[in-house]
Amino acid sequence: MLSVHTSPLDQPGGGNAGGMNVYVVELARRLAGLGVEVEVFTRATSSDQPPVVETAPGVLVRHVAAGPYELLPVAEVPAQLCAFTSGVLRAEARHPPGWYDLVHSHYWLSGHVGWLATSRWGVPLVHSMHTMSKVKNLSLAEGERPEPHERELGEEQVVAAADLLVASTDDEAAQLVGLYGADPARVATVPPGVDLDVFAPGPMAAARARLGLPADAVVLLFAGRIQPLKAPDVLVRAASLLARDPALRERLVVAVVGGPSGSGLAEPHALTRLADCLDVADVVRFEPPVGQRALADWYRAADVTAVPSYSESFGLVALESQACGTPVVAAAVGGLRTAVAHGYSGLLVDGHDPADWADAVAGLIGDPDRLRRLGAGAVAHAAEFGWDATAARMLDVYTRAMQHRQVMTA
């Protein structure tokens, strides 16, 4: 596996680390459980990192020196792809010929490394986009810069080079075909999963006690990277409307769990200033990114999790929250239309008008019976998405890719 710009060892929720990191970690671990040896190559960001780390039996993470030992903005990573590719090829050269059977690249930058490596080794390339510039550019947040043409071109090249493309939803598969000209026969849909052992229902009161939240609070949760694409400002603005009710304001807690990322790094305190400007600084609680078990506590402690993103290839946060029994109010975009079953496990909101979001949230917190029904539906819906099933389906994709390569080279 190739994950150039972000390491599977990084804490999701800040910097370059997000759902893709969880995806790579969990998929590699579950594949190893099926007898597949997995090596994940990622760019080294510190001289203290060991060259190789075994994260689980059968899973190695290899840190490749490519550029400065520091976290780079994604826009600066393409300049290091040549050095990174050289490191990958040198690692393979230390083994007998045929060491790697297949390359699975994640995100378009990794796809370019995979394109060259698989051409050299004569093995198939499977690629997961995770996000696509053409999709993001169709639904930009206000003031957000569009993705550059160079990325669009780079993605088109990877789509053309890959033996098989993996989409998280049928919607993403259609986008690959319609926006990038992918051959439908070379696109497979494999939904991501959720760790149903970690993300599971638990007592709300106990979770709130551990997090220092009042037992009678109304808790709204945003979890993830703080950047315009993820639209945490929509929740803060909606909270300012909800807080006009004095009785609700006394109990309202808006928890934002995550750190600045991407274009959000340009103004890392913008969300804090917004809360001050809207006079809800006393209501909004900012928390740094946390590990999965602590994050599960935040989901259990919340009445509702908000996912107001402008674009999501899937939306693992929505799935994790539902697995914990907490309904989700999400934007009706991309993979969130699959991750959330509208009216059964949560609600989908058209657009990003804070008034619409305030109405949706108010309707739920004002109807405890409905909230409980959605909570039960959330657990049932999330149970359909386990990582073991994802890994098994991915193994079928790998087999197809290897068969495709054999036919093409026969």
Q: What does this protein look like?
A:
With 410 residues, the chain is of the alpha/beta class. The protein has helices at 19-33, 81-93, 108-121, 133-137, 149-161, 170-180, 204-211, 232-242, 246-251, 270-277, 292-301, 316-323, 336-339, 354-365, 368-382, 387-409; strands spanning 38-43, 52-56, 59-64, 103-106, 125-128, 164-167, 187-189, 218-223, 252-257, 284-287, 304-307, 328-331, 346-349. Strands 10-9-8-11-12-13 form a six-stranded parallel sheet, with helices on both faces. The chain has a four-stranded parallel sheet with strand order 4-5-6-7, with helices on both faces. Helix 10 (270-277) links the parallel strand 9 and strand 10 (284-287). It starts with 18 loop residues before the first helix and ends with a helix. The model has no long low-confidence stretch (mean pLDDT 93).
Summary, kept brief:
Helices cover 43% and strands 15% of the residues. It is of the alpha/beta class and 410 residues long. Helix 2 runs parallel beside helix 3 (108-121).
Cα distance spanning the termini: 25 Å
Tertiary shape? globular
Secondary structure category: alpha/beta
> Low-confidence spans: pLDDT under 50, at least 5 residues?
none
In round numbers, the mean pLDDT is 93
Number of strands: 13
Order of strands in the sheet with the most strands?
A: 10-9-8-11-12-13
Tally of individual helices: 16
- What does the largest sheet look like? 6 strands, parallel
Q: List SSEs in N-to-C order.
A: HEEEHEHEHHEHEHEHHEHEHEHEHEHHH
Estimate the strand proportion. Answer: 5-15%
Helical content, roughly?
Answer: 40-55%
Rounded to the nearest angstrom, the radius of gyration is: 21 Å
